[in-house]
Amino acid sequence: MKPAIIRNGEQPGESETERAARLIRRAGARATPARVRVLRLLRSAPTALSHHEIEQSLGDLALDRVTLYRVLDWLVATGLAHRNADTRRTFRFSAASGSEHSAHSHFRCDGCGRVFCLDAAPPPPPRLPEGFLLSRIELDLRGRCAQCAGGAQ
User: Cβ atoms within 10 A of the Cβ of 94, count?
Assistant: First the structure.
């Protein structure tokens, strides 16, 4: 029997719900139903979501507002999710790349305000002055998404 190939810590035959729960436990916390639902949603979303969009997407499984804020804050603090403000100053949340805290770039649409996570990593950091300590790099590209641009180049 050939051994299964495991990539990025994924387990063969693992569902998205099981994967979200495993990532939460790996962060050293209980995989509560609320945390699992929200992380699973963020991992499946094609763009970063606002608090309201997350509430709407959870539908019948929606959490009360305070619980949702706490879950989102926890996911960001543990590095399982990113929080960024869009062009309208609304916080939007996305799963961290591979659900590990890694640097990545964003495309922010000036038309609709959506934020898209890009696979491209930000450029290397510039040389910092003596004693400076870099905590993170963010690269935000701005323009119009395909939908708002109407297919124009």
Answer: 21
Question: What torsion do the CA atoms of 146, 39, 77, 21 make, to the nearest 10 degrees?
Answer: -150
Positions at the binding site? 109, 112, 145, 148
Q: Tell me if the pTM is above 0.70.
A: no
Q: What SS3 class is residue 6?
A: coil
CA dist 63 → 20, 51, 81 (Å):
17, 11, 18
Residue 10 CB neighbour total at 10 angstroms: 14
Q: Domain of residue 98: give its range.
A: 16-125+133-147
Q: What is the DSSP letter of 102?
A: -
pLDDT tens for 98-135 read 544 456 678 888 888 887 877 776 778 889 999 998 87
The model's pLDDT over 13-35, given as tens digits with 9 standing for 90+, comes to: 778 899 999 999 998 999 999 99
In a domain, 52, yes or no: yes
Question: What is d(CA 136, CA 108) in angstroms, rounded to the nearest whole number?
Answer: 19
The annotation places the binding site for Zn(2+) at 109, 112, 145, 148
Residue 7 domain-assigned (yes or no): no
